[in-house]
Amino acid sequence: MTSIDNLLHEDRRFPPGPEFAAAAIAQPRLYEEAASDRLAFWADQSRRLLHWNEPFTEVLDWSAAPVAKWFGDGKLNVAYNCLDRHVLAGHGDRVAYHWEGEPGDARTVTYAELTSEVKKAANALAALGVGQGDRVAIYLPNIPEAVVAMLAVARLGAIHSVVFGGFSAESLRARIDDAQARLVITADGGWRKGKVFPLKPTVDAAVAGESPVEHVLVVRRGENEVEWTDKDLWWHDVVDAASNEHEAEAFEAENPLFILYTSGTTGKPKGILHTSGGYLTQVAFTHENVFDLHPETDVFWCTADVGWITGHSYAVYGPLANGATSVMYEGTPDTPHPGRWWELIEKYKVSIFYTAPTAIRSFMKLGGAIPAKFDLTSLRVLGSVGEPINPEAWVWYRDIIGGGKTPIVDTWWQTETGAIMVSALPGITTLKPGSAQVPVPGISIAIVDDDGTPVGKDEGGLLVITEPWPAMLRGIWGDMDRYAETYWSKFADQGYYFAGDGARYDRDGDIWLMGRVDDVMNVSGHRLSTAEIESALVGHAAVAEAAVVGAHDETTGQAVVAFVILRSEYAELEDASTELRAHVATAIGAIARPRELYVVAELPKTRSGKIMRRLLQDIAEGRDIGDTTTLADTSVMSIISDKYAASP
Ligand code: 6R9
Q1: Are 373 and 231 spatial neighbours (Cβ–Cβ below 8 Å)?
Q2: Can you name the residues that pair with 299 across neighbouring β-strands?
Q3: Which of 198, 270, 337, 453 has the most C-beta neighbours closer than 10 Å?
Q4: Alpha-helical runs (H) found in 169-300
Q5: Whole-number Å distance between alpha carbons of 411 and 45
Q6: What is the mean pLDDT of residues 142-159?
Q7: Where are the beta strands (DSSP E) in 471-589?
Q8: pTM (two decimals)
Q9: Is the pLDDT assigned to residue 167 strictly greater than 50?
Q10: Could you give phi then psi for residue 118, rounded to 5 degrees?
Q11: Closest ligand 1 atom to the C-alpha of 422?
Q12: Could you tell me which residue ranges the AMP-binding enzyme C-terminal domain spans (predicted)?
């Protein structure tokens, strides 16, 4: 494969402030320690960060590759590590969650209260027959009971499968059946965009007829009317009545902790399997070091819903393992007003904030006047995750949200990796807008060509992970062949994990993510990244959001087709297509100039905010539009295709 063309030039640099660097948790010697003996490093981190009932003697067993065992002869209880030990250490009064419902109702949950709730829930679940290895599906809004349910399942050594509350009955049924879940924990409904959206009817449909589900436990939240079946039990009846004494049993480090189905832009969802000791070690380590967590004083807010991996690792397990105080919010960012997130940052004095580029760009679209109305001076670290963050959004995030002073950590990782893999460390790294930069200490990453040969500086290729890591997935539930095939077959000779992302090194050897490799186009023999062209487009003052696809072209192999949303002030921009196509040509080079450019009102996105380029490609290549069931809003596609058909 030829190198991904290195066409973007970004020269802004942001070194850490001296005070920040001096007080930072992560100091440069971390990199040295990890480099000198990787396994000893992870063993030290695990012993330091976690309580092991039975200490491990073996760090990594890779003899059954690609299925790893980390800390295999040790025993621990994940929930004990997240709860009881903090209470026993005298931190029972520390707030675990400042929770806020969308309508403005709020709850403060301390570590002592959360521990007590989880013990009750564990007793209740055990009474319903849940034990080690059983699967429990969780289909809840972003409310404290979601955390309680996850930890209660973990405490019993059972396996949770959290399904995002936006998924349909069909998707929920497929996930329940695939995992053979015997219990579902849900709610009557939750608040979203100013209304109660019902969840219970979706569960009713998903478990009707033949189903492995024996019981459905229902949290009262929306107070909407629900139909009742003989499988149903109210959470407040069974959990409130249960004893709050429960001794946590220690399980093997490799005891499965959860299954999480990837949102996947293509193919049948994969049940990604994670286990206990290695997962908790790496999420705790990265949460502490990447975000520079000082648990006594920081207030951390990861905006992800618990239904996504980011919610699992950085709204639940990482913060709780570290005894941190988090904010948790039920609703949408713009309800009841577009400054809702900034209002919450002001109210709870959030100091570390972690969100996705898609959210940042949608706030950019609304303008800086909205966040300017709130006091955001408590913020000291900002994070980004989920897709490449274009330099313009990065700089806007730092200037407008971070007051021009906060470091931004752009964190690359996946559902499969379980925890952050590539990121700056805020007290050490000189930051570059748009680059995820360097592997986390103890993580081995390379960029290689199609044959697995490492590429050089200023060259691009495929991102691989060259050594097993503690939080790595242990398989695809029920389909270990697919696990080996999907991630380990491409570079079987070298034994590398293939992440499916394109990346390049810059001239300093820092890593830039270029999007999924199926999002890379080949135009006249040049490899162009959709992300790179999108970044150029949103760098134009008129553009709020952009999506780029490669469409078949007789002459060039593929041609660039762009879909853009204009900022409201530019809605009337004349000849937007000519202007923006020329802008891309100037910013990147004539080779990247879109063959066609369409101004649209919305882009098709999955519920986690990822643009479904596959659907846009269907339009650009004149095909019938494929499966749209994972779209957040399915009407978007007909509007875009009508527009396309009407164009000259
Ligand atoms: C955590 C999460 C994983 C895919 C991944 C990549 C993209 C995530 C990124 C990023 C560039 C970043 N991705 N973080 N791309 N820079 N900082 O998002 O997991 O939902 O499984 O998605 O997201 O393409 O392969 P998941």
Answers
A1: no
A2: 325
A3: 270
A4: 169-179, 200-207, 235-238, 277-290
A5: 20
A6: 98
A7: 475-476, 497-505, 511-516, 520-523, 526-529, 543-553, 557-566
A8: 0.87
A9: yes
A10: -65, -40
A11: 17
A12: 532-610
